[in-house]
Amino acid sequence: MSSLSQKVRPIGRRLVAGVLVAILAIAVLIQFIPYGRAHDNPPALAEPSWNSSQTRALAARACFDCHSNQTSWPWYSNVAPMSWLVQHDVDEGRQKLNYSEWGTHREQADEAAEAVREGKMPPRLYLLMHPEATLSDAEKQQLVEGLIATLGGEREQGSEHGASSEEDD
Where do the domains of the chain lie? Predict the structure, then answer.
């Protein structure tokens, strides 16, 4: 048995070394995939009429990295595969709700306060990487109330109680 275990050890070491070399090679090769490095911050066109400077400050701290054109691109946003995740999250966030292009991308504005209230926004993974975006319970409540006042007021201008009427179409 001892001769068999002596033969298995070098094979195991070679296998582990081969796997590590393969992982390293893949890690280097994926850096050449062109997705995930479009780190542009287009100019801000228009923001909502914030109900207070505190609401804007809380939104900027907890939401703007993905939901505005004022994204701070951290170092890891240049290293695949993290760059893919960051780019995807920013692209999707801006598409759904962009506080810097208020006249265009606001399809889910009515859900923003609810997402904060329910703890869906900011996402947990984002908070892990950006602890400064963590809001206390009081700050969450203030942001929720501010978003309702800010975004709710914007929606209600064209219709009663925030529901769009067919006459507006």
Answer: 2-32, 53-160
For 158, which DSSP code? Answer: T
Q: What confidence tens digit (pLDDT) does each residue in 45-63 have?
A: 999 999 999 999 999 999 9
Q: Residue 46 in contact with residue 152, Cβ under 8 Å?
A: no
- State how far the alpha carbon of 91 is from the alpha carbons of 55, 65, 83, 105, 150, in Å: 23, 11, 12, 12, 23
What single-letter DSSP state applies at residue 101? B
Q: Residue count of the chain, please give it.
A: 169
Cβ atoms of 97 and 150 within 8 Å: the answer is no
Say how far apart CA 65 and CA 94 lie, in whole Å: 9
pLDDT tens for 138-169 read: 999 999 999 999 987 444 433 333 333 333 33
Please give the distance of CA 169 from its chain centroid, rounded to a whole number. 32
pTM exceeds cut of 0.85: no
Listed in sequence order, the residues at least 6 apart from 9 whose beta carbon sits closer than 8 Å to its beta carbon are: none
